Amino acid sequence: MALIAQQLQLVGAVNIGPVDLHLATGQWLLLAGGNGSGKSLLSQALAGWVPQLTPMSSYGQLHWHDEDLLAPQTPPLKVQLVQASPQWSGCVYTVADEIGFGPDNLNLSVTEVEQRIETMLQLTGSSHLAARHPATLSGGEAQRVGLACALAMQPDLLILDQAFSRLTPLAHQQLLQQLKQYSQQHQLTVVLAETTLQPSVEWIDQALVLNGGTVAGYGSPQSQLPLMLQQLLCSDAWQALAANIATDESSDSKGLPLTDRQLLQWFKEHPDATT
Fold it and tell me: What Gene Ontology terms describe where this protein resides (cellular component) (predicted)?
């Protein structure tokens, strides 16, 4: 396993845990929960920010491969955290240079840096923003560029804390699809922290549901879907599914839908379900 948490507890303004999880290289994990559930603080711990950047006491174990993510050291560059409001370096004047800022500080060749910039501009649909000043970007544009900056560092573990919250649903879905392809090609492990069910749930391998800092559930997306429907924001159609499975004790979680198309098919196969 690549990412392992054993009896992880974080103690501060909000207490989190204990958390146990095992995530293999290339897998995707959803940290699901409402506002104040603790998913952002847990994301920061997974990024190696505790206690250096996020002052909290920690107990238990948290490892990324052989690296102790709770050790008092500089967060590892191979782990990148992207938050809802990206922070810029303040040292450059164009989006292209912002994306190249991190790689350039790794003493890479000019050719390598330029190649990373171009690749990530294309991957995130940001090529048209290359000459813009980062401070002039809209919320959605900034989130695209924030992702590009993180990916330009070629991380092994990418943590996205509501990193696409300002994009349209279609743009969010398209970006996740692009990222999934990149993840499969480069064995990139991804953690998504979200307050909404869609569109993230269809792309994940595991879900960890948080409620007030406590782990309410952990397992496959299908097994955790009933709980996620209670905890996360979702459309009326998904709320209708939640109401139906809540009253059907014989419902098998393995057959539950994870996409809008599958949801429509589920209702067709269950004509007696209420909508």
Answer: ATP-binding cassette (ABC) transporter complex
